[in-house]
Amino acid sequence: MKIDGQPYRTIWLAEDGWSVEIIDQTKLPHRFEVESLCSLDDAAHAIRAMLVRGAPLIGATAAYGMALAMRDDSSDVGLEHAYDVLMATRPTAVNLRWALDDMRMRLQDQPRDVRVERAYARAAEVCDEDVAICSAIGDHGLALIRAAYEASPGDAPVNILTHCNAGWLATVDWGTALAPIYKAHDLGIPVHVWADETRPRNQGAALTAWELGRHGVSHAVVADNAGGHMMQHGLVDLCITGTDRTAASGDVANKIGTYLKALAAHDNGVPFYVALPSPTIDWTLTDGVRDIPIEQRDQEEVTHISGKSASGDIVSVQLTPDGTPAANPAFDVTPARLVTGLITERGVCPASAMGLAELFPELAEAS
Ligand code: MRU
C-alpha cells in the first residue's frame, strides 16, 4: 500500500542485501519510523515487543529471522537455536510455527554453505506468497461487500465493523480483513469502517485508523463497548475481522473482544466474517476454545495508556489506582457457530471442519 504516494510493504530486504527493514508499529500513528533488523535477536525482539505484529507479519519476520540467524551460525545447532528462540516470542499466532517449520524443513537437508542463500530466498518467497494470498482474500471478500451494497437502498455506504488491526500492517501487504475493504473502495463501492479501538493496546485506534486514513477510506474509531448498540440500531451491515489461529473445526482466535462482537452480531442478525490466509489454520486442533494457547501479557498494558500530549510528546499515563492488579489475556476464541463464513485465498467457506477441508483438501488430509 502507499504512504504519501510511496509504495511500502511492512517488511523488506535493505539495500545492503542482507539486513531487514520493518516499520516500527509501536511508534504509529504519531511517528513513522523504519527499524533495521541485523540479527536473530533483533528479529526476536521485534516480534516480542510488537514492533511487528499481526499473524502473517509475525510469520514473515520469523522467516527473515531464520535467514539472519544463518549468517551467524548455519550449523544444525544454529538452526535449532534460531527455531527455538523465534518460536518462544509469541504463543497465539500459528503463522509463527508455520513459517519456522517451513524454513527448518527446507534448510535442514541442505549443506551448511548454501543455507544462508536458501533462507533468504525462502523468506522472500514467504513474503511474496503472503501478498498474493491477501490480495486473493480481498477479491473473495469484495464479492460479499458488493452483494451488501447491491442489496442496500440507494447509494448508501456499506458499514463494516472490524476489530484490532487486520490490515496491511498486520501482513506483508493488503491485509486480511481490510483487503476486501481496500478493493471495494478502489472500485468506487462506498464503504464506511467502524474501527474498534481494541483496548488494551489500541491497534484499532492507532493502526487501523492510520492505514484507512492514509488510503482515504471513510472510517470512525468506536469504543470497544459500542459495537452491540450500533448493531441493534442498524449501523453495521457486516463485521469482518482477522484471526491469529483458526482450528480445523473453524473456531477462530483473534484479539481479545472479538468474541463479544460475534455474540452481538449473532443476536442482531449481522453477518460475521473472518478473513484468513491458509497458514493461519492449525490443522492439529479440533477445539479452538479448549486448545488454542492464549497469550497473557503485561498488566501495564491495562493499567496504563499512551498517546500524544498537547505539546506533541508521546506520553504514558496511569489509569488505575496505585498498585491495582490487572489481568491481560490478549486473545479470545470465537466458536465456529458464531461465524457466518471464513474468507480465504481460495474462496469463502462455512466455519466448519467440512468447509475448511473442502477448500484445502490436501492440507486437511496431511494433518
Ligand atoms: O497482538 P496482535 O496485534 O499481533 O494481534 C493481531 C490481531 O489480533 C489481528 O486481528 C490478527 O493477527 C489477524 S491479522 C491479519
Could you give the topology of this structure?
Layout: E1 2-3, E2 6-7, E3 11-13, E4 20-23, E5 34-37, H1 40-48, H2 55-72, H3 76-87, H4 95-107, H5 112-151, E6 158-162, H6 179-186, E7 191-196, H7 203-215, E8 218-222, H8 227-232, E9 238-241, E10 245-247, E11 252-255, H9 258-268, E12 272-275, E13 281-282, H10 288-291, H11 300-303, E14 304-308, E15 314-318, E16 331-334, E17 341-344, E18 347-349, H12 353-359, H13 361-366
Parallel strand pairs: 6-7, 6-9, 7-8, 9-12, 10-13, 12-17
Antiparallel strand pairs: 1-2, 3-4, 4-5, 10-11, 11-16, 14-15, 17-18
Helix pairs in contact: 1-2, 2-3, 2-4, 2-5, 3-4, 4-5, 5-6
Bound molecules: 5-S-methyl-1-O-phosphono-5-thio-D-ribulose.
Specify the number of helices. Answer: 13
What is the class of the largest domain in the CATH system? Alpha Beta
Strand composition percent: 15-25%
Helix/strand/pairing category = alpha/beta
The rough form would be described as globular
Low-confidence stretches: none
